[in-house]
Amino acid sequence: MKKLEIKLVKPAMLAKTANIISAGGKNPLTAMFGRDETQNSAVNGYSIYCVFELLTKQEITVIKAVFPADGPLNYPSLTPLIPAAVWYEREIQDMFGLIPDGHPDPRPLVLHENFPADFHPLRKNIPATADVHGKRQLNMSTARGEGVFEVPVGPIHAGIIEPGHFRFSQAGESMLQLDAKLFYTHRGLEKAMEGKTPWQALSIVERICGACSIANTWSFCQAIENIAEVKVPRRAEIIRTLLAEIERITNHVGDIGNIPAGVGFNPAISLGARTKEQMMRLQEKLAGNRLLRGVIIPGGVKKDFDNKLNSEIRTTLAVVRQATNDLAAMFAEQANFQNRIRTTGKVRLKTAVDLAMVGVGARASGFAHDSRKDFSFGVYPELDFELVTEKAGDVAARLAVRLRELQQSFKLVAKLLDMLERENNKELSIAIPKVSGEGFGISESARGSNLHYAALIDGKIDRIFVRSASYPNWPALPIAVQGDIIPDFPLINKSFELCYACIDR
Asked: Domain residues of the chain, as ranges?
């Protein structure tokens, strides 16, 4: 990634400038976040960053608006012009108190219910150990009219699942509207990393999400390495890329096994669960734990893969590949299953572009967005693989994308193992100097692009921002369910397989 350049704009011009750069969604708004720079005498205010992906140039561009600490904290909302800003602006308002005038839904997003209205935890004057209590009502958005009724689901769900409250407005059998209230378990991870060195923060980053340990750690380390302007050893880059593909296979296998759970397709559920368990056991052999933690570090990796481990990977993936082929055959020959997944939970291409969706959710609607192709990281530029897309945007399309991507990942792992066995240089890492600056890191998780922003002052973290792949895709779920029946909601939800922990950091 090229050296970071940030363009300063006035708060009043933020929305207009962002709209020009976005070019109708051709350059997606990939992140938007705040920063408290009141302790920086050169700034003495609060900042909003807008990050855009220039997909045709394989680079990002960043604009920044600074709000003087003693001045107005209002700005024209981007959301009416760029729908992808809808969640970001609400979160910035929660965390920093910067107010988007004209936002169509100014309700709290992250800090609802038990947080006081005037509490903005990412301001520097709020300690990480702050003990606060509040009580405020968050009204759910529902449809009104004759024959319309509400169906509440959650926030406590059956089975092992994180909390989320879904409120359906229904007329007859069809869902008219869905409002989702998430962020019940805000952990304050970005606040907890303030003042820490990258090494001290690493264990927190690895635990943002159990399914995306590699993606989060790799993005974080990229951000630090880009600030320090260091080049990671080639062997480490091969291992990082290999681990990312193994994590993708593990998650995709789990996801294709979860989708039939939405319709009670028990043989497929069982085979999917058994196959994912094989991948989890492989991950334990590779990393010493089932979630691939403790391998990627700032500057490289701390564990090498020998021929014995490489052989374990080849053997396991041969079995897993056959199992996924069996699952695909199961799905294809079950007419009832096909009837349930086709035209269900549809997201159109325009919606995917407007919301700057990522990953499987985007590609299943025809939005050809994959960070492995769009940006240069790891050894992906040396690897030839298909960017998989579908057009229907329904459950069937999201399932098809995963099945086809699995075949690509099996081939990529084989290539990467060959590259690793040919690589004679055994260097695994390079030292990271104590530096100051700002940087971004991007990787492609199983759910889509994963972005981290880091700001260092004398080698310690001043600000970390984490945007998981689930974050831009959650707003698409209420759109996807419209017109479908409530019994199809678990099916639609599982086809996105969105993470609660990734967003509730």
From this structure: 6-137, 189-298+306-496
Alpha helices, DSSP H only, in 423-499?
Answer: 470-473, 477-480, 489-496
Q: Which of 212, 202, 182, 279 is nearest to 449 (CA)?
A: 212
How many CB atoms lie under 10 A from the CB of residue 304? 13
**Could you tell me which residues come within 8 angstroms of residue 484 by beta carbon, excluding any fewer than 6 positions away?**
174, 175, 344, 345, 492
Contact of 253 with 272, CB cutoff 8 Å: yes
Report the amino acid identity of residue 424: N
Per-residue pLDDT of the chain (505 residues; tens, 9 = 90+): 556 889 999 999 999 999 999 998 899 999 999 999 999 988 999 999 999 999 888 889 999 999 999 999 999 999 999 999 999 999 999 999 999 999 999 999 999 888 998 899 999 999 989 888 888 888 888 888 888 888 888 888 877 678 899 998 988 888 888 999 999 989 999 999 999 999 999 999 999 998 999 999 999 999 999 999 999 999 999 999 999 999 999 999 999 999 998 888 999 999 999 999 999 999 999 999 999 999 999 999 999 999 999 999 999 999 999 999 999 999 999 999 999 999 999 999 999 999 999 999 999 999 999 999 999 899 999 999 999 999 999 999 999 999 999 999 999 999 999 999 999 999 999 999 999 999 999 999 999 999 999 999 999 999 999 999 999 999 999 999 999 998 899 899 999 999 888 899 8
Strand partners, 153: 166
Q: What is the pTM of this model?
A: 0.95
Residue 77 neighbours by CB under 8 Å, 6+ apart: 15, 85, 89, 100, 101, 102, 103, 104
Is 416 in contact with 274 (CB distance < 8 Å)?
no
Distances (CA, A) of 365 to 276, 332, 348, 362: 26, 20, 6, 5
The hierarchical CATH code for the domain 189-298+306-496 is 1.10.645.10
Strand partners, 460: 457
Closest CA to 82 of 111, 59, 102, 112: 102
Helix axes 234-258, 213-228, angle to 10 degrees: 150
Tokens, residue 181: 């209230």
Contact status, residue 36 vs residue 93, Cβ threshold 8 Å: no
Domain made up of 6-137: CATH architecture: 2-Layer Sandwich (3.30)
Q: What is the Cα–Cα distance from 241 to 247, expressed in whole angstroms?
A: 10
**CA quadruple 486, 487, 490, 496: dihedral, nearest 10:** -60
Contact 436, 458 (CB under 8 A): yes
Three-state SS at 33? strand
